[in-house]
């Protein structure tokens, strides 16, 4: 939000279109990279051969195994970036992240409970626990945070913090007193795209899709909301509907992404700041642009994680911060005309 | 221009009810003039009584506890050797460290939230706790036995703050830039911690994960001295800033025009807050959530505008002492780090206050 006072770039229609074009190209490049690069190097020409037919069957298997992982990366990256943009827009707070309403903590609590009761499960198994856990936690925080009528954002932020704190305390208590649970939890909590199959995609696709549609509906209203409640009402915007729609969409998107790839909060927290400084404050540009930048960041981070310590892999949650944070800090440094 | 959140001050001051009486002011010569808020005084005293009860319980419960009747004698250096041992070596320093750390974290959070006008603000958001966790992890993984883990934590926290300071380009006076830089640095530090925990052997990882949650086990009088000296050094500055900070909450322009110097106040408050948190990290590791919840609980209890500094400090101490009591004496607490209980206690209580407000329809 601060960037608005620090003279953002003028986001005229030409510049916006240009930036969106660059974003699409970058994402396409990242997708291609994600298919070509891996812990086993495959020459790009042979990867193209997979799609035209007539490639080595071994290469076909390798590349095909990268397709669902890439799809999960695109979905999760877009969902996290959008969720962050919506949460920061609705709450007018630059610290708002997709986990704001306890979504990450809810998913973690459900995963830990499932592991404690049923023993370690597969990646697909955790999705079916993480998804309802995340949605329930988000719903609980939303209910406590928005009752009381005046729509004060402090209540909402605190309600989210409370739900997160209590659930995180539960997660830590269970994980630290049961070594087996801790052993699988410590991998889940980093966030990873490895081993995600088509079933994971199908599990989270409806939730993320619904969130995406809602986001497109409310993005115009968010511009009015940014003026402050009084001014927004005065312009004729329906503040209540926009706010509720934005929050629900944020919870849906964040839940889907966290269920699929684990809690990678940084994408949702940082991408909105980067997007604002690149395309300005108009949410009608911010929302689609965030949906391009988020997956690009996540896929590039995943590729780096797969290649940098060959033949091992680094989990994408670790790499994302180290790829994304320098970009964020550079952008911050560049917008130096501070208030 | 939408500043970050400013609702608390507005809604508190426009809250219904009888008009407030003129503010009473405690004066010490011409040096000091502190506004006195009767309700805060009453609540503060009540909380102090609860704190004393919790302290007495900490000393007297459990297998090595000192019976209540013996505590005064033991404090005077008389009584059974086991009681004296428990008081001087086991429970005593731990209790004093818990109270001091709670005070430091409560003050730090209160200062930081006030000058950033953000209820999610605490020195942790600018990377302090995350840096401490990463420092501890690296010390434990890369240099086991060479660098003590607490020293690693302090080094990590300091490094994080220095990076944040350098990256903002404007120092510590612009909260918006501070927070964004903090997000980036904290994310890298957290990722590093997660990575270290995931590559370590399981048992080591468990120990480290406990430390990263903050711990008060086996504290000595050295730790107690460290934290209380830090608090004592900070208090005069906190008192000096209390007035300007309250004015600052009304906005930079007004504060400047009243001669309160918004930028100076903010830089001072952030520095104080970071120093207090760093002292807390060095004695107890990164204990979560006290600097976030204590000021909010204090604000809701006192219903007073401004940062509620003293009350936040008392609430912070109370949360940490109670959490430590739970760790020592409750059946589920065995072996868990105290940070888990501060999250649970602070979270549940703040949640209760929020739901009560919702019922009453205030705020």
Describe the structure.
The complex is a heterodimer of chains A (339) and B (363). With 339 residues, chain A is mainly alpha-helical. Chain A has one domain (2-334): ABC transporter involved in vitamin B12 uptake, BtuC (Orthogonal Bundle). Chain A has helices spanning 13-36, 44-52, 57-91, 103-118, 123-146, 153-177, 179-188, 198-225, 229-234, 239-261, 265-279, 283-307, 316-334. In chain A, helix 1 (13-36) runs antiparallel to helix 3 (57-91), helix 1 packs parallel to helix 12 (283-307) and helix 4 (103-118) crosses helix 5 (123-146). The longest helix of chain A is centred in the N-terminal third of the chain and has 35 residues, at 57-91. In chain B, 70% of the residues lie in helices and 3% in strands. Chain B has helices at 7-13, 38-60, 71-75, 81-116, 128-141, 149-168, 175-199, 202-212, 221-248, 252-257, 262-284, 290-302, 309-329, 338-360; strands spanning 24-28, 32-36. In chain B, strand 1 and strand 2 (32-36) form a beta hairpin. In chain B, helix 4 (81-116) runs parallel beside helix 9 and helix 7 packs antiparallel against helix 8. The interface between A and B is large, with 69 and 68 residues.
């Amino acid at each position: 939000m601060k960037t608005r006072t620090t003279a953002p770039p003028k986001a005229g229609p030409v510049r916006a279109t240009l930036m969106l074009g660059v974003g699409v190209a970058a994402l396409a490049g990242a997708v291609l990279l994600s298919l070509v690069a891996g812990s086993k190097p495959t020459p790009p020409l042979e990867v193209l051969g997979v799609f035209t037919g007539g490639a080595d069957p071994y290469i076909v298997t390798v590349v095909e195994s990268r397709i669902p992982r890439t799809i999960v990366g695109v979905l999760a990256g877009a969902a996290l970036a959008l969720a962050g943009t919506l949460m920061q827009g609705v709450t007018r707070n630059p610290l708002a992240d997709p986990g704001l309403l306890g979504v990450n903590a809810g998913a973690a609590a459900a995963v830990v409970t499932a592991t404690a009761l049923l023993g370690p499960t597969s990646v697909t198994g955790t999705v079916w626990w993480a998804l309802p856990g995340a949605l329930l936690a988000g719903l609980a925080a939303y209910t406590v945070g928005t009752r009381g009528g005046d729509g004060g954002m402090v209540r909402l932020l605190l309600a989210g913090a409370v739900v997160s704190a209590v659930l995180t305390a539960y997660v830590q208590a269970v994980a630290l007193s049961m070594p087996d649970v801790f052993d699988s939890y410590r991998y889940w909590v980093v966030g990873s795209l490895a081993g995600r199959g088509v079933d994971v995609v199908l599990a989270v696709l409806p939730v993320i899709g619904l969130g995406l549609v809602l986001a497109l509906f409310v993005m115009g209203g968010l511009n009015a909301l940014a003026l402050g409640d009084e001014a927004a009402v005065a312009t004729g915007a329906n503040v209540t509907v926009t706010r509720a729609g934005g929050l629900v969409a944020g919870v849906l998107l964040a839940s889907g992404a966290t269920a699929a790839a684990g809690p990678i909060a940084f994408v949702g927290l940082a991408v909105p700041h980067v997007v604002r400084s690149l395309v300005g404050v108009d949410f009608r540009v911010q929302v689609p642009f965030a949906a391009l930048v988020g997956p690009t960041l996540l896929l590039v981070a995943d590729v780096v994680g797969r290649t940098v310590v060959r033949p091992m892999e680094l989990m994408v949650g670790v790499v994302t911060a180290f790829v994304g944070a320098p970009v964020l800090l550079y952008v911050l440094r560049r917008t130096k005309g501070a208030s | 221009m939408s500043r970050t959140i400013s609702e608390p001050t507005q809604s508190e001051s426009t809250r219904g009810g009888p008009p407030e009486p003129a503010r009473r002011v405690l004066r010490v010569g011409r040096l000091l003039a502190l506004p006195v808020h009767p309700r805060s005084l009453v609540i503060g005293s009540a909380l102090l009584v609860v704190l004393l009860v919790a302290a007495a319980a900490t000393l007297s419960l459990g297998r090595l506890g000192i019976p209540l009747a013996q505590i005064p004698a033991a404090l005077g250096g008389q009584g059974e050797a086991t009681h004296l041992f428990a008081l001087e070596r086991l429970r005593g320093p731990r209790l004093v460290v818990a109270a001091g750390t709670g005070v430091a974290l409560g003050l730090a959070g209160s200062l930081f939230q006030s000058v950033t006008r953000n209820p999610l603000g605490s020195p942790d958001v600018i990377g302090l706790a995350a840096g401490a966790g990463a420092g501890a992890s690296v010390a434990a993984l890369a240099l086991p036995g060479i660098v003590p883990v607490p020293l690693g934590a302090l080094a990590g926290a300091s490094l994080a703050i220095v990076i944040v300071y350098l990256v903002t380009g404007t120092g510590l006076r612009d909260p918006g830039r501070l927070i964004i830089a903090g997000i980036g640095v904290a994310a890298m530090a957290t990722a590093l911690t997660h990575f270290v925990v995931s590559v370590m052997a399981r048992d080591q990882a468990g120990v480290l994960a406990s430390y990263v949650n903050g711990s008060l086990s086996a504290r000595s009088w050295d730790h107690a001295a460290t934290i209380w000296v830090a608090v004592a050094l900070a208090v005069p500055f906190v008192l000096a800033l209390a007035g300007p900070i309250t004015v600052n909450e009304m906005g930079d322009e007004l504060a400047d025009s009243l001669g309160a110097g918004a930028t100076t106040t903010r830089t001072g408050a952030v520095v104080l807050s970071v120093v207090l948190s760093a002292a807390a990290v060095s004695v107890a590791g990164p204990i979560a959530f006290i600097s976030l919840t204590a000021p909010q609980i204090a604000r809701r209890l006192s219903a007073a505008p401004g940062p509620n500094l003293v009350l936040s400090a008392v609430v912070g101490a109370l949360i940490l002492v109670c959490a430590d009591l739970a760790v020592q004496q409750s059946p589920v607490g065995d072996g868990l780090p105290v940070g888990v209980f501060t999250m649970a206690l602070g979270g549940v209580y703040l949640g209760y206050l929020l739901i009560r407000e919702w019922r009453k329809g205030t705020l």
